[in-house]
Amino acid sequence: MSIQKPKGTQDLLPGEVEKWQYLESKARELCRRFNYNEIRTPIFEHTELFSRGVGETTDIVEKEMYTFLDKGDRSVSLRPEGTAGVVRAYVENKIYGEPDVSKLYYVGPMFRYEQPQAGRYRQFHQFGIEAFGSVDPSIDAEVIALGYTFYKEIGLKEVTVEINSVGTPSVRTAYREKLQEFFAPVKDQLCKDCQSRYDRNPMRILDCKKDQKFGEDAPNILQYLDEECQTHFESLQEHLQGMGVPFRINPRLVRGLDYYTHTAFEYKAAGIGAIDTIGGGGRYNGLVEQIGGNDQPGVGLGLGLERILLVLQAQGVEVPKPQPLDVYLIGLGDAAEKEVTKLLHQLRLQGIAAEKDYLGRKMKAKMKSADRLQATYVAILGDDELARNEITLKKMETGDQVTVSLADLTANAAKTLFA
């Protein structure tokens, strides 16, 4: 029996991987415009980073992490999300010493041991950004706007933004008591996980899909915001309105991570069944200190690439195809074939996408290969052309042919081919 890929993973093959490259290139280009710089962190970290950073009461830490002992008996985990690792790198490398706000982005795989379903894999991929050093609500709005702009520019339709304020630790302490009072009469009817959350973090009950019916009339956290939180939340809304980013307030939005303060937000899009969240994020003002650094505010987002591709497909949005091959070289005869190998390399060094046959096939099969590769030109070099120091260029779309000198082609291939 042949070895197969692990459950919840996928092979990204040619023809499909180009869609991923397109999303990643759009993310990088957008971050350039918004002045975010790339950071790359390890795929695995010490487990303590996630238990301290993500939160011990989250499903991620309790159930979903790939955790194991390395050969030194140290507990390490594959990263289940991107923020904690970026914060660790921010602290360890003393990026907080820079005079400006630190604006970083990442693209890469994350790992969670959960039941695979539409758009959700055990190895999945995220594009995320993090901004450190500012408490200004305008940067919360910038982060939300960057994500919304990304969705719009790749062609997603009907993307909605939901926002909420989850307050500060002091606000949540008061809100926690109100939630416990509210859920006390039905505590025994809650699922096993939420019965545990009742004492440790009752806000997480609002995020539970099984017990949503019990929380329909739960107290609204927006009613318990202090003046600081209220001012921050109102200012965020004003900035989003000024940017033209449509949003709606969802007071039940708490996100699945423990580190958020003030702003929490999600992006929704139809097209992948009951699960309609395609990304989200929020502010995490205490996380840098919690992970061991000087207290620095932060805000960020994470967008799931698998879910984005599913929605693009469901909405019938065509991802731009990669550029076709510029030229396919065909040599007829031993001497011409040797010259083609040399010419192929010279063209590639000039930035021309070029290919030739490596299987010793006949002319007809070579032309079919050029057609499959969607080559713009076929360049045919026979022994007679070689003797005249010439080569024949055939435009595949029209069939038009022209003979040019090899010297012109090698001196300036782009001008000769695409003048």
UniProtKB/TrEMBL annotation:
Main location: cytoplasm
Gene Ontology MF terms: ATP binding; catalytic activity, acting on a protein; histidine-tRNA ligase activity; transferase activity
One GO location term (cellular component): cytoplasm
GO biological process, one term: histidyl-tRNA aminoacylation
CDD domains named in the record: HisRS-like_core (cd00773), HisRS_anticodon (cd00859)
Subcellular location: Cytoplasm
Binding site for L-histidine: E81, G82, T83, R112, Q126, E130, R255, Y259, Y260
Residue stretches making up the Aminoacyl-transfer RNA synthetases class-II family profile domain: 8-320
Keyword terms: Aminoacyl-tRNA synthetase, ATP-binding, Cytoplasm, Ligase, Nucleotide-binding, Protein biosynthesis
EC class (word): ligase
Enzyme nomenclature, EC number: 6.1.1.21
Pfam families for the chain: HGTP_anticodon, tRNA-synt_His
Catalytic activity: tRNA(His) + L-histidine + ATP = L-histidyl-tRNA(His) + AMP + diphosphate + H(+)
Assembly, per entry: Homodimer.
NCBIfam families assigned to the protein according to its UniProt record, in alphabetical order: hisS (TIGR00442)
Membership in a protein family: Belongs to the class-II aminoacyl-tRNA synthetase family.
Entry protein name: Histidine--tRNA ligase
Organism field: Paenibacillus sp. SYP-B3998
